[in-house]
Amino acid sequence: MSANGRPSGQQTPPPQKPQNPQNPQKPQNSQNSQNSQTRDSAFLRACRREAVPHTPVWFMRQAGRSLPEYLKVREGIPMLESCMRPELVTEITLQPVRRHKVDAAIYFSDIVVPLKAIGVDLDIKPGVGPVVAEPIRSRADLERLRELTPEDVHYVTEAIGMLTGELGATPLIGFAGAPFTLASYLVEGGPSRNHEHTKALMYGDPQLWADLLDRLAGITAAFLKVQIEAGASAVQLFDSWVGALSPADYRRSVMPASAKVFEAVAGYGVPRIHFGVGTGELLGLMGEAGADVVGVDWRVPMDEAARRVGPGKALQGNLDPAVLFSTREAVEAKADEVLAAASGLEGHVFNLGHGVLPTTDPDALTWLVEYVHEKTAGGRG
User: Fold this and answer.
1) 85 is catalytic
2) Residue 61 catalytic?
3) Among the options 70, 185, 250, 371, which is catalytic?
4) What pLDDT does residue 61 have?
5) What is the pTM of this model?
6) Nearest to residue 208, comparing CAs of 135, 120, 139?
7) For site-directed labelling of 317, which of 39, 48, 297, 304 has its Cα 20 to 30 A away?
8) pLDDT value at position 380?
9) Which helix (H) or strand (E) holds 37?
């Protein structure tokens, strides 16, 4: 690996496609808008609130730690380095598609990859998570966050090119961390239970906070654009920690930055998914920020989530990932509850209410996909 994180000898990828002068947000001849193979997939149809042959299924963290084949190929390779190896990313992203027959793949990466790519001194420590060497807590610190360019993450373009060739009609979901969650890691210096430094900055210096989130919104939007331009059929914005905020704080101090990200990629025409944990009180606002699909964790039933979000949005969720450790009968019963609560929705993507837990039996995921497919065969016409 070279000093800037690129594999030694790696060639610079070809330049991105020219932008449409009439709409600088939308590329000319975007391969996503032309990809009829994935366009008619159950996943993308559900995201567009169209009729589906069955309820589509994918799982957050489906590519990774619960799979023995993942542990084997990643053995001895640090997390961030694994995100920069296109062949490895391709293999890991494909593993759950082969094993579970899910309706969509999600690009294997980490939400801090774009921060690492622009030079933030951070690492992902096993058992801890992202750790930032020098937290950002002043205006001088903010200046360390430069813009992200496609060349910074050339390995993403290369990996997605490989993946779309392998996936065929199966859509690929790109993703990024939302500005609030990225800011919480940067300000706290790592994972936090109470977000005390983050909230202190948000309340104590609202202008610096707004500038920080605006800077992160630009970085996040650039990262999503790279993925869409390379061939991602949808994108998900993870705001993992935003459930720590009240609705008033979210609307005032976070929503403008999230909306900026969604607006930046609106011209591409791909579905935009928004997900956070513990966000039952924020679901309506998260949809209002610009998402086409709102992710729901397991704490709120899907029919109640639909009431909170309002019409015009598809929903994604929301089986409790811990249920998968119970009996098959119990899992099926809880899956039936999710499907029943979602039966009246305009569009529903079946998922867990958070990521796959590390010690989950992979076979439980495989037959859950089969069960949902069989249970909903015939779909919504």
Assistant:
1) no
2) yes
3) 185
4) 96
5) 0.90
6) 139
7) 39
8) 62
9) helix 36-39
